[in-house]
Amino acid sequence: MKRVLLLAMTTAVILPFHVRAQTKPDFSGTWTLDTAKSDPPPQGRGGGGGAGAGSVTIKQTGADLAVTSEGRQGPQTMTYKLDGSESTNQVMGRGGAQTVKSTAKWDGSSLVIETTRDFNGMSITTKEVRRLDNAGKEMIVETTAQTPNGEQKRKVVYTKS
């Protein structure tokens, strides 16, 4: 009887932590850039890559994540499959529409999105790590881009509107 009681108490204490660790954050909502907490955009051509727009709207389901931001040619939506399979999106660039390929996968409570695009015959790879902080009121996006000019890193913080 004591063993059963001890097992029940141990399960009651450990199980909530195990379940909480497995839950994935929901990034859904409208997010506004916090320039005071964010790194400034890179200078020169090709800087930023769309990360760091004034506001973004995210819709998340169990299967995908859709991020809409305001670009130079109007709203731009990127949709990512959350199962680690490849997603294809069209983005507007200086030379018109361009196809980009991405994979999104969970790393604990962070969502890691790796995107590859061709720019003037060169391949540019971007790794974006997205997580929530401050009880879900802040979204931190850390981006690392491998470009012909070397590696560029930027941390952008958004506040939930």
Task: State the main characteristics.
161 residues, mainly beta, ten-stranded antiparallel sheet, 1 helix, 13% helix
Strand content: over 45%
Q: Say how many strands there are.
A: 10
What is the typical, i.e. mean, pLDDT?
84
**Number of helical segments?**
1
Fraction of helical residues:
10-25%
Widest sheet: strand order?
A: 4-3-2-1-10-9-8-7-6-5
What does the main sheet amount to?
Answer: 10 strands, antiparallel
Shape: globular
- Amino-to-carboxy terminus distance: 53 Å
Can you walk through the features of this model?
With 161 residues, the chain is mainly beta. Helices cover 13% and strands 56% of the residues. The protein is built from one helix and ten strands.
Concise structural overview:
With 161 residues, the protein is mainly β. It is built from 1 helix and 10 strands. It has a 10-stranded antiparallel beta sheet with strand order 4-3-2-1-10-9-8-7-6-5, with no helix packed on it.
